[in-house]
């Protein structure tokens, strides 16, 4: 994966080292969709087919959108991305400080 990203064979990849990590952010949406199929009488095979189909469709969307990156660079300049990333970081300060103090389950921790 990382070799393909860095070497860009056939124009595929970012041209830089991109370490890919896992994320569980998608699980909520996948589980909700799976429970919806189950509520409608779907079998475990139907649930898995839906999950694989949605993942396949999502991959196709990313492939199509990746071809538009060149045009988006005119709109999304380094100034715009810098401001957006800074605002995301500023909005996460409260979450970080809360977690540093033990989270919401320990209101008197660190006091």
From TrEMBL:
Keywords: Membrane, Transmembrane, Transmembrane helix, Transport
Family: Belongs to the nucleobase:cation symporter-2 (NCS2) (TC 2.A.40) family.
Record's GO cellular component terms: plasma membrane
Record localization: Membrane
Lyase found in the keyword field: no
Pfam families, sorted: Xan_ur_permease
Main localization category: membrane
Source organism of the structure: Pseudomonas syringae pv. maculicola
Protein name: Xanthine/uracil permease protein
Membrane topology summary: Multi-pass membrane protein
Entry's transmembrane regions: 12-35, 47-65, 77-97
Single annotated GO MF: xanthine transmembrane transporter activity
UniProt superkingdom: Bacteria
Keyword Transmembrane attached: yes
């Amino acid at each position: 994966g990382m070799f393909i990203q860095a070497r860009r064979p056939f124009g595929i990849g970012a041209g830089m080292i991109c370490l890919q990590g896992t994320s569980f952010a998608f699980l909520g949406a996948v589980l909700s969709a799976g429970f919806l199929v189950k509520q409608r009488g779907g079998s475990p095979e139907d649930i898995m087919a839906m999950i694989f189909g949605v993942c396949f469709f999502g991959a196709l969307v990313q492939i199509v959108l990746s071809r538009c990156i060149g045009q988006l660079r005119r709109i999304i300049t380094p100034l715009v991305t810098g401001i957006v990333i800074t605002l995301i970081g500023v909005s996460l300060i409260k979450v970080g400080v809360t977690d540093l103090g033990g989270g919401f389950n320990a209101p008197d921790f660190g006091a």
